[in-house]
Amino acid sequence: MHNLLPLIWRNITERYRLLGVHCQICGKDYFPQRRICPVCRRKGKFVPKQMPHEGKIVSFSLVHSAPSGFELEAPYFLALIELSNGVRLLSQLVDSPAQKVAIGVPVKMVFRKIFEDGPEGAIAYGYKFKVVSGEGKKPAGKKNPRKMAAVNS
Amino acid sequence: MRKVSIVGAAVTKFGEHWSSSFRDLIAEAAVKAVDDAKMDGNEIQAIYGGCMASGRFIGQEHIGALIADQLGMNPLASTRCEAACASGSVALRAGYLAVASGMYDVVAVGGVEKMTEISTEEAAIALGGAGDQEWELFMGATFPALYALLARRHMHEYGTTEEQMAACSVKNHANAVHNPYAQFQRAITIGDVMESGYVATPLKLLDCSPITDGAAAVILCASEHARKHTDAPVEIAASGQASDSLALAQRSSLTELNATKVAARDAFRQANISAKDIQAAEVHDCFSIAEILAIEDLGFFKKGYGGKASIEGETALNSKISINTSGGLKGCGHPVGATGVKQVVEGTMQLRGEAGKRQVPNLTNFLTHNVGGSGATSVVHILKRG
Ligand SMILES: [Zn+2]
């Protein structure tokens, strides 16, 4: 990771507040923000929109071989998350015991450090997600025993 | 559109070339391809070179002109094409379109990558450029992790197992044993894969293609002139290409690569054949799960059955369909910019009947499938004898 300072700074409101856009023409939400609606293209009309901070796990991986900037955290969970409005994003999971990480499990957003760009470089902050404990009694994935077996293998 | 044929084809040995430079690899592949076409080189009118990340790997950009210069081909037009790991195939497609359009009669297409001059960690960063840096690599994703997310979802929806994925690596190593150009001419077992240690669950080290140096080249010619150069021309019967989001989170599905489905649909339509007419193919197995996705998305197996077909041997050499006769990216090696061209060199050798112990007999068609990143670009070519 090098020369990331402009990128870290430029996306700060999006990353800190999960601020996406809503297209007033087709009604779809997008995160991260886009300039052109893929459905409406030039006819689209975007307004800023706060994304929900709750969602569920669509897929996940425990990353053992970490890229530079993330070595100290390895192994860590990476997950594809579907927010409650249907928007998907990729995020790390934190404060989530391994036995509770599964497809369909509810998660909520937390604010964390993402990485350090070298020992004296910039520190990037943003969203991570954690498994919601207590509400995880009946995750969607548990309906089908065969599917759960595949997830846990 | 004119018909276009391959009249010369060559690869370098794939592997760690400590004593060969980027320039050496290009020169070796190009000279062998020109010799194979029984040309002296003066017939060539333009050059297209696939290369993903030479700036990261060796600190060198402007590869198009470098190739022309190193081959002694100045002042020919020479253009670099880049689409991450599909760079070789988009270069081939550019060359194909240039001849098909009538602009040129003969062009050279190459693919090259020199990946071992930097550390594995630095190479991982370079390859990460194929994904969405701002929103996915930034969050701690790696390429194995992105494919791991696809694998986990495929396991969840279809019951695909880690052993089934391992079977792809095992089969590709078995094919590579018979390929003198392959990086790993040795067999491995499912046990070896299962014990190779997690990179990003559920993917293990031996589910992943290696870091490789290598180059490949083909000479394309208008089909009407092809028999001047070879007794066994191979026609490019179709060229399909499609795009999708770089970010995995923006995909409509995690259990298929839509770009592959669209590129394949277009290619089959152009060649006027269907998946049933393909007996052998090179598909993009950068990770074992990628081969399972490919054989499903290309229509060789029903969605969800790719893993089962793989472990039951239906994709082995001279079985139902011979997948990755060269050893694939896993066994033959994956010099990213060269891979798409190497796949077509393998198809050409197979259709000419020159593939030695890995030969699939009586082939009429051969399909190549090359993916950029985790599916943001997919390119499908169909080759046929004639
Ligand atoms: Zn819209």
Describe this structure in words.
The complex is a heterodimer of chains A (153) and B (386). Chain A has 153 residues and is mainly beta. Chain A is 13% helix and 37% strand. Chain A has helices at 5-10, 12-17, 145-152, and strands at 19-23, 29-30, 46-50, 54-63, 76-83, 88-93, 106-116, 123-131. In chain A, the strands form two sheets. Chain A has a five-stranded antiparallel beta sheet with strand order 6-5-4-7-8. Chain A has a three-stranded antiparallel beta sheet with strand order 2-1-3. Mean pLDDT of chain A is 86; it is low at 139-153. Chain B is α/β, with parallel strands linked by helices and 386 residues long. Chain B folds into two domains: 4-119 and 212-234, Peroxisomal Thiolase, Chain A, domain 1, CATH 3.40.47; 129-209 and 236-385, Thiolase/Chalcone synthase (Peroxisomal Thiolase, Chain A, domain 1). The radius of gyration of chain B is 19 Å and the shape is globular. The mean pLDDT of chain B is 97. The interface between A and B is large, with 39 and 39 residues. The complex binds zinc ion.
How far the N terminus sits from the C terminus of chain B, by CA atoms, comes to 17 Å
What is the class of the largest domain in chain B in the CATH system?
Answer: Alpha Beta
Q: Remind me, CATH topology of the largest domain in chain A?
A: OB fold (Dihydrolipoamide Acetyltransferase, E2P)
**Ligand list:** zinc ion
User: Biggest sheet of chain B, in brief?
Assistant: 10 strands, mixed
CATH H level, superfamily name of the largest domain in chain B: Thiolase/Chalcone synthase
The tally of strands of chain B reads 12
CATH architecture of the largest domain in chain B: 3-Layer(aba) Sandwich
Keywords:
heterodimer, A: 153 residues, mainly beta, OB fold (Dihydrolipoamide Acetyltransferase, E2P), 5-stranded antiparallel beta sheet, 3-stranded antiparallel beta sheet, 3 helices, 8 strands, 13% helix, 37% strand, globular, disordered C terminus, B: 386 residues, alpha/beta, Peroxisomal Thiolase, Chain A, domain 1, 10-stranded mixed beta sheet, two-stranded antiparallel sheet, 13 helices, 19% strand, binds zinc ion
